[in-house]
Amino acid sequence: MNKQALAHQPKVGIVSLGCPKALVDSERIITKLRADGYALSPDYAGADIVVVNTCGFLDSARNESLDAIGEAMNENGKVLVTGCMGATPELIREKFPNVLGITGPHQYEAVVSAVHEHAPIEKNRFVDLVPEAGLKLTPRHYAYLKISEGCNNRCSFCIIPQLRGDLVSRPLGEVMLEAERLVKSGVKELLVISQDTSAYGQDLKYAESRWKEKEYRTKFYDLCEAMGELDAWVRMHYVYPYPHVDDVIPMMQDGKILPYLDIPFQHASPEVLKKMRRPGKIEKTAERIHKWRDMCPDITLRSTFIVGFPGETDADFELLLDWLDDVQLDRVGCFQYEPVSGAPSNDLDNHVPDEVKEERWHRFMAKQQEISSLKMQAKIGTTQDCIIDGMDAETNRIIARSKADAPEIDGNVFITECSKPVTAGDIIQVRITDADDYDLYGIVQ
Ligand code: SF4
Question: Is the confidence at residue 18, as pLDDT, over 80?
Fold first, then answer.
């Protein structure tokens, strides 16, 4: 390699905040920049320019984004801001009038041309081309696959449709080509994401799309079917419990896609759900969860909830705890309600005092901990297929995950004894020997 030729290769630093969807956006930006010949800088000092991909979902996320912009301005000074907060540029300009440019979510091309403008690159034929699958910020063996942008729902606590617009789905063939490329490049686990995965294709009227000489509808069911053809674990996130979700459970039981559903239920009280403007009848949902478990006993259900939503009464909250007892979800996250600027829920009556939110949150978490602990204990003595994530240097244990664990948000399986060499991305059988409230421990014989 001609070192001289690389001497003027500008370096871009990227700070990526927010959800996996924002991470995918960052990956697209750096993929394009690398393809154009830019290098990445792991620190501010070495960067010719810094891109901050912001999150604007909650007020706390906005503050975090503003802090990140401030840090980049202090440490480097040449800063471009993109992402959800870019939809309100006046808030950014007010605090940081000297940022070089601001673009909204998904404006990859605008970010890339702003980088070209402020840190120009000389054409260089010695610079490596981007790998076929693009560059990823996640470890090599798993990847997020975004199937659509935006959302047609109008949940009262959420401003994502204001920021990102209505649902725009990618045709199934296009999604599958990306999935296939990722698997060919070594990805072993695909995490399917969107704002509302079960609504996939509604905007396209489920138009047919060709992949591998076969016509599929751009629809959740067909996507699961096509992804089941890939040699990879496929995990479905942000699925709403519309009736057609029942049809994919047999594919989970047959091992085509992982027996795992991430469904953000948010609450169980019909009154609160109505105020949240969430779809679905919760009594029916409980019935269906029991039916899913009959059809696929190993299914893992993950969800998130909000406690202390405006108007949530003691009775609503008790109903939620009883519902948790009934449906026995496997993995659960819980947030205390936080008003988001611009969200219609701010105008609802009867906001719940902070100390009540706090108390409900603790009671909710204690309930779920009890459920999770029993579920973990029940796995002792079983053998689980696990994917290796890496090594914990401090404890000398191998960090892995079972089919029930999504990376970063669920638990881990810590392997304390292993009779063979393993590397990240290997899928091996682990005998579970111990458990705590959220994690498992096991050995490989
Ligand atoms: S489903 Fe509701 S919470 Fe999720 S992005 Fe759409 S509007 Fe927001």
Answer: no
